[in-house]
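Researcher: Predict the fold of Secreted protein.
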Amino acid sequence: MFRRTFWFTAGAAAGVWATTKVNRKLKQLTPESLAAQAANKAIEAGHRLKDFALDVREGMAQREAELDEALGLNTHPELPAPRRVAAIENSDNPKYSKNPTYVERSTYSYNRNEDH
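Model: Structure tokens for Secreted protein follow.
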């Protein structure tokens, strides 16, 4: 009698456990769940990619500093002030001359009926 009760209880527990596992797996395979999992994976990949880019940028800055030091480029000489250049009229080009007879023509004419 106790044997039968034990095996009945063990079978019922195994059935409940298996049913629970199957239901969880079915919920994981629904389209909404799969979409959420894909979105989470994409976000994780984006974070990893951002961390990688930051590491690369940090390494580049460090290597650039090492090269600057090795080549003696750390000293910045005093640069002269930038010069301002006055605009000069280009009289050789008819586009910029004061001749009112010059009309610029486009080399590309668009005709929307051309393609049909």
